[in-house]
Specification:
single chain; 110 residues; alpha+beta; three-stranded antiparallel β-sheet; 5 helices; 3 strands; 37% helix; 13% strand; elongated
Length: 110
């Protein structure tokens, strides 16, 4: 399964975001979501089979780690859209005065 399809699921995206912060045990991952442990296990299996995460047994725990290199295909696809915003789409910088558009009253000088 390709990363685009796998990451279409919101819970799997949240798991990837969580793992971006560092390795996490399966139990800790399951505790963060309002679904059953078997459901989280299925999502983790899909992520593992897609090559986006890897797991290792440490003692009695299974620890999951994000495989960042596997996100390269997704990153290359996103490159087609960069910059993701055009200057017209960008919000005004903090503290800057809004620019007057056509038909707006002129700024008053004192």
């Amino acid at each position: 399964m390709d990363p685009f399809t796998v990451l279409a699921d919101p819970l799997r995206r949240q798991v990837v975001e969580l793992l971006a912060e560092g390795p996490v045990t399966a139990g800790d991952i399951a505790a963060r979501f309002p679904v059953t442990r078997p459901a989280v296990s299925r999502h983790l299996r899909v992520l593992r089979e897609a090559g986006l995460v890897e797991s290792a047994v440490r003692g009695q725990h299974r620890v999951y780690t994000l495989r960042r290199a596997e996100l390269a295909e997704l990153d290359r696809w996103l490159d087609r859209f960069r910059p993701l915003t055009s200057p017209a789409d960008a919000p005004p910088a903090a503290g800057s005065a809004p620019t007057a558009g056509p038909g707006a009253p002129a700024a008053r000088s004192s």
